[in-house]
Prior knowledge:
This protein is of the alpha+beta class. Helices cover 50% and strands 10% of the residues. The protein has a 5-stranded mixed beta sheet with strand order 1-3-2-4-5, sandwiched between helices. It has a 4-stranded mixed beta sheet with strand order 17-16-18-19, with helices on both faces. A 3-stranded antiparallel beta sheet has the order 8-9-12. A hairpin with a 2-residue loop joins β14 (446-448) and β15.
Amino acid sequence: MTNRLAQAQSPYLRQHADNPVDWWEWGPEAFEEARRTDRPVLLSVGYAACHWCHVMAHESFEDPATAAFMNEHFVNIKVDREERPDVDAIYMQATQAMTGQGGWPMTCVLTPDGEPFFAGTYFPPEPSGQHPAFTQVLQALAEAWRDRREEIVEAGARIRAFLAERGAGGAGTLTPEHLAGAVESLAAEFDTEAGGFGTAPKFPPSMVLEFLLRHHARTGDEAALSMVERTCEAMARGGMYDQLAGGFARYSVDRFWRVPHFEKMLYDNALLLRVYLHWWRQTGAPLAERVARETAWFLLRELRTPEGGFASALDADSEGREGTFYVWNPNQLMRTLGPSDGAWAASLLGVTAAGTFERGLSTLQLREDPDDPERWARVRAALLEARENRTRPARDDKVVAAWNALAISALVEAGVLLEQPAFVEAAVAAAQLLWCVHVRDGVIRTSIDGEASRNAGVLEDHATMAEAFVAVLGVTADPVWLERARVLLDRVLRHFPDPDGGWFDTADDAEQLLVRPQDPSDNVTPSGTSAVAHAMLAMAAVTGEQRYRDAAERSISAAAPLAQQVPRYAGWTLAAAEAVLAGPAEVAVVGDDPALHRAALALTTPGAVVVRADEGAAIPLFEAKTRIDGRTAVYICRNHICQRPVTDPTELTAQALSRRRGD
Length: 663
C-alpha cells in the first residue's frame, strides 16, 4: 500500500511512497492537519542521490514500528531539497544553529506554525556512540510536546527570531586590494600537498578556482594560477573523477581525492567543465582539455533527458552498496583484461589487493599519463564494456532550472572552443526546454518528463537562466534569447530586491515561509546574489543599459563583507568583481568566421561577453558595427567604447594582451 507520495513528481519523494510512514508533501494542508490534531511536524529533507538518506529510509522509515510511532505522534513531511531550496535553506540554518553542523538527511521538528524546536541529521536505528537511536529521539520529542509545550513554543519563537535576523547584512566594496587579499587568504588555507582547501572531506572548489583563474588573467599572479593547477590536476587524477567515462563525483572523503562520495551531480560537472575549459584556455594544459572534453560528453551521454534537459544526479549506490558500479579489485581486472594487461592496469590505476575503498576494492586513479596511450585506450574500452554489465546507479531525471542553466553556459563555450557542435546543439535544446517549460507567468524550479512542477523558482534559477540565455544568444545571434534574458532579469529587479540592499532568495509573490531566506554565500552552487551579479553584468554588456550594471554592482556590494572575511564561500562574487575591474569586455564578432569566433571566446580577460552575429543584428551591442572589407571583424569594447576592429585572430589576441599590460 502506498502513501501520498505516490502522486509526487519528485523521484526522491516517490522513493518513499511505499514507506509505512504517512508522509505529506510540503504544503498548507500538512500544517493544517498538525493544528487540527495538535501534533508537531516532523520534517525530513533529502534528495534522490543521497546515500545516507537511503540508509535512514531503510533503517527507520521502512520499519513498521518506527513508522507507527511517527504516524501517531507527528505529522510527517518529506521534502526534496532540490525542489524546495527555500525550505531547505531555512531549516538548514536552524539545524546548523542548534547543532553546529548540517547535512542530509536533515530532520527538524516544528510547531504547527513551522517554528523549529529540534534539529539533527542522520539518526541510527540503535544507539551508537553518543548518537541516540531515532526511536529514542522520537519518544523524547513526543513526551516534550505533551509535557513541556510552553518551553517548546518559546524555543521555536527564539529560533524564528534568530533566522529573521540572519538576513540583515552589510554592504561594502571589492577593490583590487581586497581581491589580492582574498588570494592571500586562500593561499593560507591551501593544501599544498594534495590541492584544494582545508582538510577532508573535500568538495571541488569550482567557483573559487574560477576566481583564481580570472585573477591570474587580470594580474599575472602566479600564486593564483598555481593553486588552480595543483587542485585541478589532483582532482582529475584521483578517484573522484571517473577515469573510464568522465564526470566528477560530489566530493572526496579524504584529503587526496582518492575515495569519493560516489553520487554525481549536474551542478558539479557543469561548474567543473567551465573551470577545466578555462584552465586549458589560459595555459593550454593537455590534461585540462581532456577533462573538459570528457566531462562535456559525460553530460550529454549520461545526464541528458529525452526532452533535451539534463537530469539532476546519478545515485551513489547500486546493488544496495555505495560505489559498486565504479570500483574494482585486481582479480576483476585480470578476468576482464587478461594477466598482462590486468597487471599493467592495476599498477596504472592504483588497484591494490588491500583496496583503497572498502571490501578489498579500489577506486580508479590515474596519477600519471599512461606510457602507452594505445594500450590505455584498449584497456579503457574493455573496462568500460565490462562495467556496462554491472547494475547502473539510478538517475534522478528531475530537471532543475538553475543547474541546467549552468550546464548550458558551460556547453556553449566548450562547443565553440573544442570545436564540438554537438555541445552547442545540446545547450540550445536545453535552453529551449527551460523557456518553454520552466518560464510561465513566473519561473518554475523543476520539471520532469517535460511537465513543470508547482515549485516556484528562486533567485539563482532566474539569474543563471538569464546568463545562459545570453550565452545562447552569443552562438545563435537570435535576439529572442536577449528578450528572454530580459524577462527574467526584469522580474528579478521587480520581485527580489531587499530595500536594505542585496536580494532575497525568494520572490515577494512566492509562498510566504517562516522567514524570507537571504544568503549571499556560495555553497555547492552560486548563491542567488552572486549569480545575479554575473547575469546582470552580461546583460549590461549586451544592452548597454546602466540599470543592469547598477544591479550587478549592488549584488557585489551585498556580498562584499562575506568575500572579505571568508573568500572560500564567495568565489562567484569574487569572480564577478574581477569582471568589473576588467570591464568586462564586450566582444562583438561581426560575421561568420568560426576561427575568429573561437579566438574571441579564447580571450582570457575576466568575464568577457562574446556574441557572434552579422551586420544589422537587432542586438544593441552590434549597433553601427560592420564587417571590414567584407571580412568578419571583432570589436572589443568596454562600457560600449570600442577599440579598433580586427580581422585576424593573432591580432585579436595581441590587442587583448596589450590592454592587460596597459599599453
